[in-house]
Amino acid sequence: MIGKPVPQPSQTAAFVPGKIIPIDLMANAGHRSYDIVVGDSILSEAGTLISLRLGVRRCLIITDNNVGPLYRQRLEAVLAAAGHTLIPALEVSAGEGSKDFTTLQVVLDHMLKNGIDRQSLVIALGGGVVGDLAGFAASLVMRGIDVVQIPTSLLAQVDSSVGGKTGINTVHGKNVVGTFYQPRLVLADVTVLDSLPKREMLAGYAEVVKYGLIKDADFFHWCQSDGDKLLRGDRQAQIYAVGYCCSQKAKIVAADEREKGERALLNLGHTFGHALEAIIGYNQLILHGEAVAIGAVMAFKLSAQLGFCSHAEAYEVRDHFATMGLPVAPPSTFDYDVDKLMDLMAQDKKAQNKKLTLILARRIGDAFVSHDVKTDAVRDLWLELLR
User: Fold this and answer.
1) Which of 25, 59, 65, 186 has the fewest CB atoms lying closer than 10 Å?
2) Are residue 289 and residue 194 in the same domain, yes or no?
3) φ and ψ of 358, to 5 deg
4) Does residue 165 share a domain with residue 117?
C-alpha cells in the first residue's frame, strides 16, 4: 500500500481522494501517460515506485542546497536498495536566481561529465525552481531523457511538478525560455511539507486557492473553511488538497497540453505576478506564490472594474488571501516603474502581437481568457495599487 487511506472531506464532493492520479496525453508521438502518486510515505518507496514503472536505471538527482541536506541521502538509499545505480548528485543554489542560463550550463556540464545517456533518469528533488531547471535540462541533453519529479514544496506538489512546463528566467521575463516536456512520474509526499517555513507554505497555498478561483467555487469555499488545517500540517487536508489540485490539472493538461486554450486558465494572476517578480529581480522580496496571490487579487479587481464580476467577490478573494497571511498588494519597499511593468506584461508568453492576454473572472469559479483588455485599464490599476 502506498500512503494511508484518507477519507473525503465533507465540504465538497468534487474529488474523491486517491493515491494515484493518472495523466493520459495524446500527441503526435502516440499515446503517453504518467502517474502522480500522492501520499504520506512516498519518499521511502520512491526506488520501488520508479523501478515498477520505469525499470532499474542510472539515476541523477538534481536538488538544491536547502532540500539536498534534508532528503538527498534518504532518496539515494532507497534508490540503491531498489537496484538503481547512482550518478553523483548535483546541488544548485536554492532560489529563483538559479533559473538562469548560467546554472542551466552547470547542470548540463555535470550531466555530460558524468556520462549521462539516453537510458539515464533525471530525478528532480525540490521545489518549483529545481523542477523547472532539471526538467528543462532533461529535455535538452541527448535530445531528451526521462525525468521524474519529486516535489518538496506545496507549490510544486499542487502545480509546477505536473504538466510538463520547464524553463528558466531571463531579463525579458519569467519562464520565457523553456520547453513542454512531460515527466515520466510524479511522486508527492506530503510529509516533506513539514520542513517548509511558513512563508513557503503560504506561497504554495496561493496556487491551491487558484484552482477554486478558476473552475470550482466549492473548492474555494473548502479553502475558506479548511485551508488553515492544510497550513497547520493536517495530513487529511494536505493529501486532499494536493490530490484535488493534481487531478484538476491532469484533466486540463490532457485536454490542452501546449496551452492553446483552457490550460491558460491556470495562469490566473500570473501575468501580473510574473511582471512583479521580473521587475524586482527574482529575489526573496517576493516569492512566486506571493506574486500569484497579488496577481489574482489584481485580476479579480480588474474584472470587477470592467463589469465582469461583482466587487463583493473581488473583495472576498482579497480578504481570503489576506486572512491567511498572504500579501494582497506589491511590496511597498520597491521603487516601481509602471512603464516597465507594462512592458513586462506585454512580453508575457500568453501575449499575442504584443497585446495583453489576461485571465479574468465572471465570478469565483468561472475564469476566462481575455485578449482585448485595454492597456489603460491595466496601467490605471497598477497606479492605484502602487501610489
Assistant:
1) 65
2) no
3) -125, 150
4) yes
The model's pLDDT over 179-198, given as tens digits with 9 standing for 90+, comes to 999 999 999 999 999 999 99
Residue 194 within any structural domain of the chain: yes
In terms of Cα–Cα distance, which of 18, 55, 54 is closest to 37? 18
| 91 lies in some domain | yes
Of 133, 68, 59, which is closest to residue 102 (Cα–Cα)? 133
> pTM, whole model, 2 decimals?
0.91
Question: Residues 84-140: pLDDT tens digits?
Answer: 999 999 999 999 999 999 999 999 999 999 999 999 999 999 999 999 999 999 999
Enclosing domain of residue 328: 268-386
* Residues marked as catalytic: 143, 165, 207, 249, 259, 263, 267, 270, 274, 288
3-class secondary structure, 349: coil
The angle at the Cα of 248, spanning 192 to 20, to the nearest 5 degrees, equals 55
Per-residue pLDDT tens over the stretch 133-174: 999 999 999 999 999 999 999 999 999 999 999 999 998 888
Three cell numbers written together for 299: 485580476
CB 193 within 8 A of CB 205: no
Alpha carbons 221 and 213: distance in angstroms, whole number:
10
DSSP conformation class of 7? P
Tell me: do 210 and 159 sit in the same domain.
yes
**What residues contact residue 89 under an 8 Å CB cut-off, 6+ apart?**
60, 61, 62, 63, 68, 72, 76
* C-alpha atoms less than 13 angstroms from C-alpha of 316 in its C-beta half-sphere: 17
